[in-house]
Amino acid sequence: MGPILLTGATGQVGRELLRTLGAIPGAGEVIAPGRVSLDLSDAASNFRGFRETIRSVKPRWIVNPAAYTAVDKAESEPEAAYAVNALAVQAIGEEAQAIGAGVIHFSTDYVFDGTKRDPYVESDITAPLNVYGASKLKGEQALAASGAGHLTFRTSWVYGATGKNFLLTVLKLAREREVLKIVADQHGAPTWSADLARMTAAVIAQCETMAAGDTLHETLAKVGGVYHAGGGGATTWYGFAAEAVRLRQQCEPEVRFAEVQGIASVDFPTPAKRPGNSLLDCGRLQKSFGWTMMDWQDSLGKVLSEL
């Protein structure tokens, strides 16, 4: 197995992937260049530096968790969002297709408008409500159109013990305020970054086993495409915050934490509109690779134990 090229290694998912990818049986070197040599915002040069890196490394896999994730800021910076989330992904697909590399790409629940009552399956109609979701959808489509063998994992509400995420922000504010008001009418499932990274490594290992008699491209033509990979269970942002603060209070009874109150989305206006339902049906992932994503309450307990 050849080298693995990892983008976004300093992000919360990338940091976890850096640990898990190297543990894949028979894995080659995990190469994680810094932002200078791996500038995914350099659309003006058609990502020349990034393309040269791929051609030099000749990776077996390109794993791409890097993304423009500032959902609200994307509304005023659409070109920046599309550069990283769509045009750079197109470049990855083109270069991977040229050398026969497999691509792992991460997308989002925000490709949907959230009006469906049940969890979304991969074949449901996409209709993003904001620039971030639209740019991520464009990236999915560009990767598919490139002809590269690939797996796109749509995930949701990613968090962990490090980096910038909702959980860490809530716990910080809960120490500073008397009352914490959190949106209670957006439904979804938090996804632990470490669980997402472990899943990715397990899927790559299975694909390598399947490819024993075929090329990697032929294998991914059979099992590749879009998969949903969000946390198990269901809650709201309010439910997630309230449970996190409750559990943290148990660990630190001497600390006075804020009272967490639920509010409606209309009472907390943001530049980018969010879907009311972000739940993802991950049945295809389980059926194809035997992987069940961790329930959000179980992962929350694990993450809090690391803080």
List the topology elements.
Layout: E1 4-6, H1 12-21, E2 30-31, H2 48-57, E3 61-64, H3 78-99, E4 102-108, H4 131-146, E5 150-155, E6 158-159, H5 166-176, E7 179-183, E8 187-188, E9 191-192, H6 193-210, H7 216-223, E10 225-228, E11 235-236, H8 237-251, E12 259-263, H9 283-289, H10 296-306
Parallel strand pairs: 1-2, 1-3, 3-4, 4-5, 5-10, 6-9, 7-12
Antiparallel strand pairs: 8-11
Helix pairs in contact: 1-6, 3-4, 5-8, 8-10
Short description:
By secondary structure, this protein is of the alpha/beta class.
Overview of the molecule:
With 307 residues, this protein is an alpha/beta fold. It has a single domain, classed as NAD(P)-binding Rossmann-like Domain (Rossmann fold, 3-Layer(aba) Sandwich). The chain is built from ten helices and twelve strands. A six-stranded parallel β-sheet has the order 2-1-3-4-5-10, sandwiched between helices. A two-stranded parallel ribbon has the order 6-9. The protein is globular, with a radius of gyration of 19 Å. It starts with a strand and ends with a helix.
